[in-house]
Amino acid sequence: MSTGPLRIVIVGGVAGGASAATRARRMNEQAEIVLLEKDEFVSFANCGMPYHIGGEIPDRAKLLVATADLLRKRFRLDVRIHSEVIQIDRASKVVTVRKWPDKTVFHVAYDKLILTPGASPIVQNLDGVGSTGVFALRNIADMDRIRSAVDALTGTQRKAVVIGAGFIGLEMAEQLASRNFDVAVVELQPHILPPMDAEMVVPLQEELNRENVKTYFGSGLSRILHDKGQVVGVELENGTQIEGHLVILGMGVRPNTKLAIEAGLEIGKTGGIATNEFQQTSDPDIYAAGDAAEYLCYPQNQRMRVPLAGPANRAGRLAGEHAATGRSAAMSPVMGTAIVRVFHQTAAMTGLTVKAAKRAGLECRSVTVIAGQHAGYFPDAYPITLKIVYSPDTGKVLGAQATGRDGVDKRIDVIATAMAFGATVRDLAGLDLAYAPPFGSAKDPIHQAAFTACNEMDGLGSMLDADADLSGWQVVDVRTPGEIAKAPITGVSKVSAIPVDDLRNRILELDPAKPTVICCGVGVRGHVAQRILLQRGFKNVLNLSGGVTLRRRAVPEK
Amino acid sequence: MSTGPLRIVIVGGVAGGASAATRARRMNEQAEIVLLEKDEFVSFANCGMPYHIGGEIPDRAKLLVATADLLRKRFRLDVRIHSEVIQIDRASKVVTVRKWPDKTVFHVAYDKLILTPGASPIVQNLDGVGSTGVFALRNIADMDRIRSAVDALTGTQRKAVVIGAGFIGLEMAEQLASRNFDVAVVELQPHILPPMDAEMVVPLQEELNRENVKTYFGSGLSRILHDKGQVVGVELENGTQIEGHLVILGMGVRPNTKLAIEAGLEIGKTGGIATNEFQQTSDPDIYAAGDAAEYLCYPQNQRMRVPLAGPANRAGRLAGEHAATGRSAAMSPVMGTAIVRVFHQTAAMTGLTVKAAKRAGLECRSVTVIAGQHAGYFPDAYPITLKIVYSPDTGKVLGAQATGRDGVDKRIDVIATAMAFGATVRDLAGLDLAYAPPFGSAKDPIHQAAFTACNEMDGLGSMLDADADLSGWQVVDVRTPGEIAKAPITGVSKVSAIPVDDLRNRILELDPAKPTVICCGVGVRGHVAQRILLQRGFKNVLNLSGGVTLRRRAVPEK
What we know:
The first copy, chain A, is α/β, with parallel strands linked by helices. Chain A is about 25% helix and about 25% strand. Chain A starts with 6 loop residues before the first strand and ends with a helix.
C-alpha cells in the first residue's frame, strides 16, 4: 500500500480509462494517478476506426484523441504505455506489470484501482485463421494493418468477406464497399443486425442489396481458405465457399476479465466484472468500467454487459470521481441504445426488442408505424419505420427500434430519454416536440406510434402483428386498386378489396361475424376502416400493423 | 338543442379543427359532425406556406393536406366552407353562421361545440398599410397573392421588407432571399428571435449577414411608403427608410376570441380562451383548441397561449374525442418547443429562457456548451451551441435553447422529453443516447452541459455568465498564443495568458487572493484550469461559460 498521497492506478486507457483518469485528476490535484496501457496508444477513437479504413476519415491523427503527451501535460498523469498488468495482489494492493517488448516486470502500488481493460474481438480457432489477410479490428495497429491490406489489394483481389452482420460488421462492409471492394457479409443468425427484430432490418438489407453487398445467413464460418499463406476465401458450415483476399472477423467481443477473475473479483451472470452503482467491484477499492464491466440495465433491471462507448465513458468518469473523492453520482441505468449507418440508411434501437422481451419472460405488445421524418409536403421526406415495444398492462415503454434515411437517431434518443423516466406510451403521446416543416410533423412518428398503442390499450382498435398467419381471417384491403396492383398483400389467398372511402356503402359485402383484419398502406386508413366496422356490429376487427408495407417485409413475396 | 344523434359542431378547420373532427368521427360513427370554415380551404398545411412562396415546395396542392372532399368521403363530415360562425347561443345551443359571399345566414344546432378559430396576424393600422404589395400571411389566399407578387416583381423591384424577426419572419426572409430578393428584416426588439436569449441567436444573425439579409433593430414600423397605391418601402419610428416593393407583416398573431368573448366564455390571463385539461371551456359543452386557446404550460404551471401547430393538433384531437365520448386523456403540459431553419443554421428552444425565467420570477442558473453535433474526428462536424436553464436549488431543467447547423432538433427534443418528466440536470447527465461517429459523441453536448451544471451544483466549479462585467477580475486566458491572437477575449483590459498545460508551472504569476475568471475556447480547458487553481489555494475561481467563443457573441468586439 502506498503511504504518500492517494494513488489511483488505472488499467487500460481506451474503454473509459482515460475518462476515469482525467476526472480523477480534476477531482484530486494531489493524487498520484498512474495509467497503464498495454498497447501503444493510451486513448483513441476506436469507434472511428472503420471510417479511417474506408477513407471517410482520411487523417489518422484525428483518431488519436488524447495522446499520452497531452494526458501527461494537462492532467499530470503518469502514463505508461506498452505496460500490461498481469496480476493484482489485493492483499498488498500492488499490481504486477509486464513491460513490452522487453518483458521486464515491475510493480505499482495502489490505493484505488480502476479496471478498464475493454474487450477483445472473438477469434475462433479455425483452420487458416492465421493467414495473411485475416483480421480482427481491436486497436490502431489492427486498423493500420487492415488499411495497408486494403490499399495493397488490386483488381480481382478486391474482394472482402466480413464475418458477422452486427453493428461493427455492417460499418466495415459499408466502408470496404466504398473502397470498391466486392463485399460479402456472413451471419450465423437469419438476418443482419441480430439484436433487432427481423422485420425491422429489411430496409437496411435492401440497402445492402442495392449497394451490391452480398449477404449469407444461417451458417457459421467453418474454415478460412488460403493459398501459400494468403487468405483466398472462407468456407461456411453449410459448404458454401466465398472468395475473398481480405477477411474481417466481426463476430463480437469477449470481455477482458482474466485479470479480474484471477484476482478473485466477482463476475456477473453475463460474464462481465460485477459492479455496484459507483462501479465498485466486490473489492470496494477496485472499480471496473467499460466493456469488461456490467451495468444495471433498464428495463430488465438486471446487471449486464453493454459493450458501448457511451456507457463506458460515463461509467469511467464516475469511477474516477469516486476513486478520487469517495463519492459520486450513481451510474444511470443503461438501455443499450445503439445506432449504425449503412450507406444511406440508419438503424437504431434502445431497450428491449420483442424477441428480447420474450427471452426475458416479459409480456409485451408492439406497434409499428411508417411515417416521414418530416412533413410529407416538404421536399426529401423519407419514411422512418418506428417500432415501440410496451407492456400491455401498464403501457410502460420497454424499447424501440427505428430504421430510415434521416431522423432515426432523434426518435430513438427521444424514446430512450422517456424510458429513463419509466415513460408509458401515454406519455409519448403527449410529448411537446419541435416542429417546423424541415424537421418534423405536427404529429411526429413517435406520436403516431403512441396514439396507436393508446388506442389498443383503450380498446379502440387492436393491431395484428405484420407476420401473422392470416388463414381463416376475412382480409379487407382498403387501399385503391392502383395501390393494390402495385404491391399486393403477401401470404393471403383471398382478399376483399374495398377502398376505405367506399367502406360504409359496401359494408354488406363483408361478414360481420367473421374475424376480420384490415390492411392499408401503413396502417392509417386501416384504423379508420377498423373503427367503422367495429361501430357497425363487426365483432372482431384487427388492423394490420404497419399495413401492407410492413407485411411485405415480414412475409416476403414468393 | 338537437334531438337525434349526438351533434358535434366545429368552428374552424385549420388550427386543430380537422384533428378534432376526424378523431370525433373515429370515436363515434353515429354522430353528426359539422365542420364550419369561413375560408375556402378547410384544412391546409399553414406551416408550409412560406416554403411554397419561396419555391422550396413547388407543388401548391401538397399543402392542401385534407381536402373537404376527403373529409366528407372518408370521415362522413358535414363540411361547409365559406361559413363564418358569427354568434353562439349557449342557452339554446345553436350557432349562427354567415355564408360568404352572399351573406345569407343560417343556424346549426349543437350538442358539443369545438372552437378552433386560430389566430390572425397582427396588422397595425398604419398609413399605407392597404397599399398593393403589403401582405400578412394567414391563409392560402394570402399565400397565393404573395407568390404572385413575388413572381411579378422584376429587376430593382425585387426588394422585400419583413416586419418581425420571429420564427415566421425569418422563414419568410430566408425564402424571399432564395427567390433573389434583397431582404430587410425589421424587429422592434434588440435582436432576431426575441423569445430567445440574446447571445444565443448570434450564429443565426451571422448567417443572415452572410446571406446578405439586412436587419434593423430597436425601432418599430412607423408608416408604409407608397407611390400610386404600390408600396415602395417602409419608414421606422427612428426615421430610417427602407426600400421595398414587397412588405410582409410578421409581427405575430392575435387569437380569434371575439366569438368566445361575445358568448361569455371565460378568457384566460394571456388573452386566450380558458380551458381545462380536456380542452373544455367555462361552458363544459364547448371546447377550445389551437391558437385561440390556452394550455397548461410547463415549467411555469400556468395556463397560456402557445400558437404552435403541435399542441393545436394534439389538443384538437383530444377535444374531438372528449366531445364524442365524454372521456379522453388529459392534455399534456406544453413547453412551447419551437424550431426554425435560417439558411444553413437552425435555432430551437423549449421551456424557459433566462429572460423568461426572470420575468416569471423564477430563480435560475444557466450553462452553455459549444460542441460538435457528432464526433469531432468525423467529417462535417459543426458546433452546436446548447444552453440549459435550470433551478439552482433542485437542478430541475427549466428550459433549453440551441443553435447550429445539424442536430439542433434532436437535442431540443431530448431535453423537452426529459422536461416532461420533471428532469434535473443530473438526469440529463445519465441519458443513454445513441452514439456512432456519424450521429453523436460518446459525450453528447447534452451530457457536457449537464456535467457542467452538476459540477456547479456540487461546488466543483462555478460558471460566470458570458456577458459578465469582468472589471476587477483577474482574467486568465488558458488558450495557446495562436488562439488568443486570432480571437482575443472582449470587454477586458488586462489578461494573463497562461496555456492550461503550463498553469501548474506558472501558477506563481497569479494572485490567489484575487477573484479569478478563467477563459478558454469553449470552456473545457477552463474547467481543468479552474480545478487546478481551486485545489491550489485560490479562493474564488470561476470559468467563463462557453469560453471566449460565447463571450465574443455576448460582448461583441468594438
